[in-house]
Design goal:
The protein is α+β, with helices and mostly antiparallel strands and 167 residues long. The protein has helices at residues 2-17, 36-41, 47-55, 59-62, 75-79, 85-89, 95-103, and strands at residues 68-73, 106-108, 119-122, 128-134, 137-140, 143-152, 155-160. The longest helix is centred in the first third of the chain and has 16 residues, at 2-17.
Amino acid sequence: MKISILNTIAASAVFAAVTSYTITSATAAPAASEDIVAVASGNSDFSTLVAALTAAELVEALQGAGPFTVFAPNNAAFAKLPAGTVDDLLKPENKAKLTAILKNHVVSGKVMAADVKAGPVPTLGGGDVVIAVEGGGVKYGDAMVIGTDVLASNGVIHVIDTVVVPD
């Protein structure tokens, strides 16, 4: 029990400390009146994610009431995928695979950085992704969390540096 509590406290402290990500949209702090898709659309670092959400027909779902926590891969995360992967995923015939990958980045509920707990979290894709403290940072699956608590009217976005592909 003590180990679990210490892990939770450590994860929360480290996760809350991850604040190096800079919002590069026209407005430095998006209004909480904008939904997750609007916030992502207003930030050029998420243009690939927004294109993927559109191709997977998930825009309307993420404009819903939620609340949602989105572990959002930035453009650099998508660029780390093998050459041609993003273009292939955006093709209509690969919609199911793209949808599964994107839903792997969404958790039900609004989980702020201070409230995160280490361990497996269920995603809207149906599987679990493990949140862990590693190397002085917080990981969501294989991705490092590089920005936290980007607020939206229907949830929150945490920025990650790698696309987390489900098994």
